[in-house]
Design goal:
Number of helices: 5
Strand content: 5-15%
Helix content: 25-40%
Largest sheet: 3 strands, mixed
Shape: elongated
Order of helices and strands: HHHHEEEHEE
Radius of gyration: 30 Å
Low-confidence stretches: 1-10
Mean pLDDT: 85
Structural class: mainly alpha
Distance between the termini: 96 Å
Number of strands: 5
Number of domains: 1
Length: 209
């Protein structure tokens, strides 16, 4: 009898109550809301990532230009054609690499590319020298440089056009260079690596026409 009273007092009939569970419609509604939120969030994340990469690239070209100006002011010289990426190493905290390269006579030597020569929006691949990256920036300057202006040369450093892995490129230590007329053609005819075809220069952004 005691056992019977205990069971009766529990208010149960001896059967377990069914558990509350989400219906299929409720689950679909939740999934729909999540997908909408992701659809709103992902473009914002991508936009923030693009802005961050553009800022990093802008910082790179400004630091490279500053290093070149320091080299120019202190040495009273301007780099020979296609030498600027090597000559400025000491002025961009790469003195050990500069010292190592000064003793090198092999044009196909393997030297690690300093981080400032890498644009985060460019596809990255080896140059014609295996395991050596390319320089993603170009120096624009008017040559020949008069002796009277050798320590006060006007130049610009900026993005190269969007590179193609199918076209062989020189290693970073053979630095790309343009004349100002070639720069105008580049900016007018080829998209830069930053959406929507922007170029980063040491003086700001440039949008092709």
């Amino acid at each position: 009898m005691a056992v019977f009273r205990l069971l009766a007092g529990s208010g149960g009939s001896g059967f377990a109550r069914p558990r509350a569970a989400a219906s299929l419609i409720e689950l679909l509604v939740v999934l729909f809301i999540i997908s909408v939120m992701l659809g709103l969030l992902l473009p914002a994340v991508q936009s923030a990532r693009t802005r961050m990469q553009a800022t990093a690239c802008q910082n790179n070209v400004r630091q490279l230009a500053l290093a070149l100006r320091h080299y120019n002011w202190i040495t009273k010289r301007f780099p020979e054609p296609n030498r600027w990426s090597v000559d400025i190493l000491k002025w961009m905290e790469e003195a050990p690499l500069a010292e190592e390269m000064s003793r090198n006579v092999d044009p196909n030597a393997i030297f690690p590319r300093p981080r400032l020569f890498r644009c985060p929006m460019q596809p990255d691949f080896d140059s014609r020298v295996e395991h050596v990256g390319v320089c993603h920036y170009v120096l624009t300057v008017a040559r020949p440089i008069p002796r009277t202006k050798v320590d006060n040369v006007y130049f610009e450093i900026h993005d190269r056009e969007l590179l193609n892995e199918e076209e062989p490129q020189e290693p970073w230590y053979i630095a790309p260079e343009l004349s100002f007329s070639a720069q105008r053609v580049l900016f007018a005819t080829k998209p830069g690596p930053h959406p929507p075809g922007l170029y980063m220069t040491d003086s700001g952004q440039f949008r092709p026409r």
